[in-house]
Design a protein that fits this description.
The complex is a heterotrimer of chains A (205), B (360) and C (638). Chain A is built from eight helices and six strands. In chain A, helix 5 packs across helix 8. Chain A has 205 residues and is of the alpha/beta class. Chain A has a six-stranded mixed beta sheet, with helices on both faces. In chain C, the strands form six sheets. In chain C, strands 3-2-4-5-7-6-12 form a seven-stranded mixed beta sheet, with helices on both faces. A six-stranded parallel beta sheet of chain C has the order 16-15-17-18-20-19, sandwiched between helices. A five-stranded mixed beta sheet of chain C has the order 9-11-10-13-14, sandwiched between helices. In chain C, helix 2 crosses helix 7 and helix 15 crosses helix 19. The longest helix of chain C is centred in the first third of the chain and has 18 residues. The chains are: A alpha/beta (205), B alpha/beta (360), C alpha/beta (638).
Chain lengths: 205, 360, 638
């Protein structure tokens, strides 16, 4: 596994997708892996359909601010295609690695017919052209197979583990997932994690 | 720039100008249009061009000669009463109808008959107790019809129950309504009768009432005040008086007292006798035991012939000496509307204008 | 990051905590025993945590009815000799300020810390307010942590300072502290388990004669600041240029200097205490400095303090060029003093001041959006799928349209403030502070003599009802103000994360508590009320129409639980669209469910057409009652 001096990870999506929890678990797993970690995020009104973004910064020293400067994201974990593109334009660079959930969440103005959601393939192709590597996954559909759309966040965490984009071992992820979820929810979330992980590992082999 | 979005047109040309007749046709057709206290309101803006709501509105642009052509296949020669086949006195033979109904109870008897022979499977009527604000009603039995009998003098959005009945699966509906409602129902029937389209092809029979004006809901508050809340058994408005019968008492008020409750749109109504109905029915202003009946279409004629044959109603030649009085009353109203208001919704041809110049 | 980490009893262990958790941990380590709060972003979780983990430490924690009561209760604990804490958002301090300006005069006994969660950029607030001015007005010294470790450490220091001077002390977090996470080295909490005894032994009277003593306490606080390393400098010795920063802005400044390669040239002077200032120490650093750049959020608070200090001592320390908000060198994305700062902004600011170019990391990726699709639709905040507020606003909108008398709606803050936006059909005519819609309705409702005829509706949440609405309703009753107060009762304080309130059956600690019935309170004021289910849209419309013309104040309680709570317990049923009935875009009404009703679960997918998004739908069924063709149906047995 590569050793990183500093790694900036952005988890981006839409309020209500469970991306705040995902970012917390990624951060906790990074701590397990021995990194100093800072997380910056906004929640509060986040469950109400707005764009939500967490910055997880892995470092050897604990002196970083909670926010990643423009163009300095090393990894973007996008829970929604259009949001991924939006964040990429601000924080990405040609070396950025992207994991993206392909399931769109339509903004209210799109539903109202006032604006148009860009073609999905155009978005995905466009992201691919502007980054070092892009891995896509329909995490929401996989989650619905497991039983609940909200576990798409664990599918994404599993997929992130599968990509190897972050210097965190699978066992670190599993440990924090186990610590976080009560008995009742653990099985479903672990299952979602592995579905995400296997889906990605098979494809990028 | 001309507005093409129907809901905007309806708002600008009809609702904001107080031309809405509260016929009820657009209500229930679309979830954005609702009515409250007989006022029609838009609760959300829609984006549809050439939408039904404007196209079926009786105060939407209406080409009168074209309506004649589409319904009767010819232009009218009588500019006062419109196209018709026969003008008669008529009455229901069963006393149930004459006791409960207005005058002879002809309308109730015909609707009940049409239901009984399966000509229609439901009838859209104004129901409710006398003296209270009427309610849109869907009648499917003779008892339903009797319960709704009696004239209503206010602008009830009856046609909203037409939309509801179509939604519920009724296929052959009768409509009894004021002239504005007849116009709306006829527009719907003519313009939206494609089997794959909506509801015009479900309208089978249109009976129109004579109507010179309708009253706004405030009339009922006035009435409750005058009768001190007593139960009202019947209500009649003649050319001179408002006659209210409560339990054992009769209250008579000069008709001037209620003029202020007349809906503003009625002043621009060009159609006091329901010219586009299959049958038009009114009072005789002469003999309370009889109604005036105008048979206009073949469908109307067949129903009348059959009901006479089955002993439901009887008819009598319209007294020749009464005809000028009827023509005068109706003609004056139409003339007044054209001269005083020049309604923008009305599209008439040259022959009308000449008729007006001649004094109708 | 997890509540369990807050109570770990291993001094020296490093755990990942949020700023709010770190503040709670600091309070526990400091032996704080009495905590009160009214929930407000971004600091709401501090009390959540204390309530959940406080029991073994003998901590009492309550969600108070409002911030004024919360502050008074916490002050009482201090009077009785127990360390206390009260936590609020800036709007909360506005509510409590009358008490704090008086409390300054009486002073306190045991340490009392006021946690203020400011929200620069108003990420989850109705406005951005720099609460330091009000803190200063109340003579409350202000400590500002830079990172998560310090959020804990300065909390402990705040208690020491509070007892040293006999005044409450403010710990000011901002969103990037409260909601950020970082590693924290834990301290000892064993001692905190020792029992404490409460007893009132002194008098605490606010009186004008106490003013001189109060000013002495402020001087003492400044002295404390001199002696307790509240100023930290990093950078080259004798730097000619320094950044003076508070809170996380210090981190932004440091990172900006690294990115610009200016660490050998510019130093960073950080103030842990932003008021009162340690004049002597500060002057020591300022002497010989040629340029000062201020980095703080959001108002020029230390900027005013320090420039004023320099004005008094100009002859001793020589001329200094200042770069701050006053001359608009330091500015947020929308201008000086507006919005939060970050590393990017300070990179740009310092690059401009030094006349150098900022490095470009983005390369061609910066323009990816334009390349790919020109522009991207914005994502507005919206009511959640199935939110009862959406249904309530639909009913209110319909009722006011039908009523046809130009009625309007007065709102306030909370989830339902989104009634001013598209998913609330832009219904709100006013939005101000908690309960102010009802206060304004009092005004409109008594203007009949001025020919005022429009129907008036004021909407409030259930938590807001207890917080600030009751006096306004009493006023309305006494003065016969004509309006309809609609209480959008979703059984929780939804906006800030579902905290219980005075109407809940449990308290902050999860203990059974008497739930105050809204309707009983209203009955007591003798205002007529009706209860309706907002999901039953048609019934709600009828009730509103019937109530509007009635004289005097009226109350309508629209009761339906917040869907986020409901979906947590998995009660939801499933909906689907019968494609044989759906008219799609040909719907005579033009896409009612997605376009007009605007629920995010009613989607209009580019290829599949109208669909229920099963990932979002909670099965409230409102769209099914609105659909003109009854195409939206309940999945049987779901």
């Amino acid at each position: 596994m590569m050793v990183f001096d500093k790694l900036n990870v952005i988890i981006a999506g839409v309020g209500g997708q469970g991306n705040v929890l995902a970012s917390q678990l990624i951060a906790l797993a990074a701590v397990e892996a021995g990194y100093e970690v800072t997380v910056g995020e906004t929640f509060g009104a986040s469950q109400r359909g707005g764009s939500v973004m967490s910055h997880v910064r892995l470092n050897s020293k604990n002196s970083l601010g909670p926010l990643i400067p423009k163009g300095m994201a090393d990894v973007i974990v996008g829970f929604e295609p259009m949001e991924t593109l939006r964040i990429l334009g601000v924080y990405g660079n040609p070396r950025t690695k992207v994991l993206v959930n392909t399931r769109p969440v339509y903004p209210i103005k799109v539903l109202a017919g006032e604006q148009v959601y860009p073609n999905l393939n155009t978005i995905l192709q466009g992201i691919k052209e502007h980054v070092a590597i892009m891995v896509s996954i329909n995490a929401t559909d996989i989650a619905l197979e497991v039983g609940k759309a909200v576990v798409a966040n664990m599918v994404m965490v599993g997929a992130l583990s599968g990509t190897g984009f972050v210097p965190i071992k699978q066992e670190h992820f599993l440990k924090v997932i186990k610590n976080h979820f009560g008995e009742k929810l653990l099985e479903m979330n672990e299952k979602a994690f592995f579905l995400g992980l296997n889906n990605v590992v098979q494809r990028i082999k | 720039m001309e507005i093409t979005i129907s809901s905007k047109r309806l708002q600008q040309e009809v609702i904001q100008t107080e031309l809405c007749t509260s016929c009820g046709m657009c209500i229930g057709l679309c979830p954005y249009i609702k009515s409250f206290k007989e006022k029609t309101a838009f609760i959300h803006q829609c984006q549809v061009d050439d939408g039904k709501c404007y196209n079926i509105c009786p105060r939407g642009e209406t080409d009168w000669p074209q309506m004649d052509q589409e319904i009767f296949g010819k232009q009218r020669t009588d500019h006062v009463l419109g196209n018709y086949n026969q003008l008669l006195f008529a009455r229901a033979k069963e006393s149930d109808f004459s006791q409960k109904g207005q005058y002879s109870g002809l309308t109730s008897a015909l609707v009940s008959y049409a239901l009984s022979i399966g000509e229609i499977d439901g009838a859209v009527l104004s129901g409710g107790e006398p003296g209270k604000m009427p309610e849109p009603t869907l009648a499917t039995t003779r008892d339903d019809v009797l319960a709704a009998a009696g004239s209503k003098y206010s602008a009830v959005p009856t046609l909203l129950s037409l939309n509801k009945a179509i939604e519920e699966g009724f296929k052959n509906l009768g409509v009894v309504g004021r002239p504005c409602q007849v116009l709306a129902a006829r527009k719907m029937q003519l313009r939206y009768n494609n089997p794959s389209d909506l509801p015009g092809n479900k309208i089978k029979l249109i009976i129109g009432l004579f109507c010179f004006w309708a009253l706004s809901p405030e009339f009922y508050e006035f009435l409750a005040e005058k009768t001190k809340g007593a139960n009202i058994a019947s209500l009649d408005i003649t050319t001179e008086d408002l006659v209210v019968r409560t339990n054992g008492e009769e209250l008579k008020l000069p008709v001037e007292n209620i003029r202020r409750f007349i809906c503003p749109t009625c002043q621009q109504c060009f159609d006091p006798t329901s010219e586009f109905a299959d049958l038009s029915i009114g009072s005789t202003e002469f003999d309370p035991g009889w109604n005036t009946l105008i048979i206009r279409t073949d469908k109307g004629r067949e129903l009348i012939e059959q009901s006479i044959k089955d002993g439901i109603i009887e008819v009598y030649t319209y007294p020749a000496e009464r005809i000028p009085l009827l023509l005068q009353a109706v003609g004056n109203k139409k003339k007044r509307v054209l001269e005083e208001w020049e309604p923008t919704y009305l599209k008439l041809n040259e022959s009308y204008h000449r008729a007006v110049e001649r004094g109708m | 990051m997890s509540i369990d980490s807050v109570k770990i009893e291993q001094p020296g262990k490093k755990v990942l905590l949020t700023g709010n958790e770190a503040i709670a941990r600091g309070a526990i380590e400091a032996g704080m025993k009495y905590a009160t709060s009214y929930p407000g972003s971004p600091s709401a979780e501090v009390l959540d945590v204390l309530a959940k983990v406080g029991n073994p430490f003998g901590i009492y924690a309550e969600w108070s009815t409002n911030e004024k009561v919360a502050s008074e209760a916490a002050a009482a604990a201090s009077f009785a000799g127990i360390r206390s804490m009260t936590i609020m958002k800036p709007d909360g301090l506005n509510v409590a300020i009358d008490f704090f300006t008086s409390l300054a005069y009486s002073g306190i006994n045991a340490g009392m810390v006021v946690v203020l969660g400011d929200d620069p950029s108003a990420h989850s607030s109705i406005k951005e307010e720099d609460s330091r001015y009000l803190a200063k007005l109340s003579r409350l010294p202000i400590l500002e942590p830079m990172n998560i470790q310090e959020a804990k450490d300065l909390t402990i220091k705040a208690f020491e300072l509070s007892e040293f001077i006999g005044l409450p002390v403010v710990l000011r977090g901002v969103t990037r502290i409260c909601h950020a996470s970082g590693l924290v080295t834990l301290g000892d909490i064993e001692k905190a388990k020792a029992p404490v005894k409460a007893e009132l032994k002194e008098k605490f009277l606010c009186q004008p004669l106490a003013h001189p003593e109060l000013e002495q306490k402020v001087k003492k606080a400044a002295l404390w600041a001199e002696n307790n390393n509240t100023i930290e400098y990093s950078g080259p010795a004798n730097a000619e240029s320094i950044v003076i920063a508070t809170g996380p802005c210090a981190l932004y400044a440091k990172e900006a200097l690294i990115e610009l390669g200016l660490t050998d040239e510019i130093g960073v002077l950080r103030l842990k205490m932003s008021w009162p200032l340690p004049d002597k120490t500060l002057l020591g650093y300022l002497k010989g400095t040629k340029e000062v750049i201020f980095a703080e959020e959001t108002d020029p608070f230390i900027e005013e303090g320090i420039t004023s200090l320099v004005a008094y001592h100009g002859s001793e320390i020589g001329p200094i060029k200042f770069f701050g908000k006053r001359n608009e060198y330091v500015k947020g994305p929308m201008g000086a003093g507006i919005g939060e700062l970050n590393t990017d902004i300070l990179i740009d600011t310092l690059a401009e001041i030094k006349g150098i170019k900022r490095p470009d990391y983005s390369g061609s990726t910066a323009s990816c959006v334009e390349h790919v699709c020109g522009s991207i639709p914005l994502r507005d905040r919206a009511f959640c799928a199935g939110c009862p507020h959406r249904a309530s606003y639909w009913a209110i909108k319909a009722a006011l349209s039908l009523d046809g008398n130009n009625g309007f709606v007065l709102g306030d803050i909370g989830c339902y403030a989104m009634g001013r936006g598209p998913t609330g059909y832009n219904m709100l005519s006013t939005v101000h502070s908690m309960g102010s819609g009802v206060g304004l309705a009092n005004g409109f409702g008594t203007m009949q003599r001025f020919d005022f005829k429009q129907p008036v509706i004021a909407v409030v949440g259930d938590s807001t009802f207890y917080h600030a609405v009751i006096p306004a309703l009493i006023n309305a009753k006494h003065n016969s103000a004509k309006f309809l107060c609609v209480i959008l009762d979703n059984s929780t304080t939804a906006m800030t994360g579902h905290q219980p309130h005075s109407g809940s059956v449990i308290d902050a600690r999860g203990v059974d508590a008497p739930a105050l019935s809204i309707e009983k309170i209203i009955s007591g004021i003798e205002i007529p009320y009706t209860i309706a289910d907002p999901y039953d849209v048609n019934d709600t419309i009828d009730v509103i129409l019937a109530k509007l013309p009635e004289p005097g104040p009226k109350v309508l309680i629209l009761r339906q639980e917040c869907v986020l709570l409901k979906s947590k317990v998995g009660k939801n049923q499933k909906m689907y669209i019968d494609q044989t009935l759906c008219l799609g875009s040909k719907c005579g009404c033009g896409d009612l469910c997605s376009r007009a009703f605007n629920c995010p679960a009613n989607i209009n997918a580019p290829e599949q057409g109208k669909m229920i998004d099963q990932a979002l739908c909670v099965g409230c069924g409102v769209c099914a009652t609105l659909c003109p063709t009854h195409a939206i149906k309940l999945v049987e047995g779901s």
